[in-house]
Design goal:
The protein is an alpha+beta fold. It has a single domain, classed as Beta-lactamase (3-Layer(aba) Sandwich). Helices cover 39% and strands 19% of the residues. It contains eight helices and nine strands. The strands form three sheets. The chain has a five-stranded antiparallel sheet, sandwiched between helices. Strands 3-6 form a two-stranded antiparallel sheet. Strand 1 and strand 2 form a beta hairpin. Helix 1 packs antiparallel against helix 8 and helix 3 packs across helix 4. The model has no long low-confidence stretch (mean pLDDT 96).
Length: 259
């Protein structure tokens, strides 16, 4: 059990210490899941969301499934305009006319950050649906499929909505998405310097000059949501910085627990 409460001022001081010597721009938002207390650095700074936006898109899809408007077993047809190189595995095998279940597309979009899976799902449900859903759960600024601008605060709200049930997802769909996030192949940022037995449901985003990760970190009496976005920092340095920030918050949370 906790011996001391989460102190936002102390947590903010830790974040400033971790970020003040870094080049470029760093935005961080942390929420203690037990108390709802928060700490941040540059929470409203804007970044290109890149693949971090695949989580809210997945949440939108699963919300529609829960509403009975889609089915996880429903198949979507791949069209030539869905092609996108980069992250993922579908680009090597998929052909126009191939049909893939929504469940599989959500899985690939999260676990291997598949760009084609993302394009197929977003085309099928419509960017306007994603925008309205993201706005409803507090993700700011409103979703734009071209600009794809996000803030650490807004993306943390997506995590909180997922954790608290404010997302509107059915419990089984929340568990499904968190399971995909816990098994993503991209573990070199937030999870990298945390103890190996800590559960981390994360999703990275990478764009030229921008390196991000956000996650729900689950450990008894130490659980928190964290969003770390960077711009103007070399990828290797940014990854190390993100890992250090997450570890610093984890060990601060650990210090609050009675021995």
């Amino acid at each position: 059990m906790r011996e001391r409460p989460f102190n936002p001022a102390v947590a903010a001081q830790i974040l400033r210490r971790q970020t003040r010597s870094l080049p470029g721009t760093v935005g961080v938002y942390v929420t203690d899941l037990a108390s709802g207390q928060t700490a941040s650095v540059n929470p409203s700074a804007t970044f290109y969301g890149a693949s971090t936006l695949k989580v809210p898109i997945a949440m939108t899809v699963l919300w529609l499934v829960g509403q009975g408007r889609l089915s996880l077993d429903q198949r979507i047809t791949y069209l030539p305009q869905d092609f996108q190189a980069g992250a993922g595995v579908l680009q090597a095998t998929i052909r126009p006319g191939d049909r893939i279940t929504i469940r599989r597309l959500v899985d690939l979009m999260i676990t291997v950050s598949d760009n084609i899976a993302r394009n197929m799902l977003e085309r099928y449900i419509g960017s306007g649906t994603v925008r309205r859903y993201m706005t409803s759960i507090g993700v700011t600024p409103p979703y734009d499929p071209v600009a794809r601008t996000v803030t650490p605060y807004g993306m943390n709200q997506a995590l909180i909505a997922l954790d608290t049930g404010r997302s509107g997802l059915l419990p089984e769909h929340t568990r499904l998405l968190l399971g995909f996030m816990e098994n993503t192949v991209h573990r070199t940022r937030i999870p990298a310097k945390l103890p190996s037995d800590v559960t981390v449901a994360n999703k990275i985003g990478t764009w030229p000059g921008q390196v991000h990760d956000f996650a729900l970190v689950y450990e008894p009496d130490r659980s928190f949501a964290i969003s770390v976005f960077t711009r103007g920092i070399a990828e290797a340095q940014a990854e190390d910085a993100i890992a250090n920030i997450a570890a610093a918050i984890y060990w601060y949370m650990d210090s609050l627990v009675a021995r």
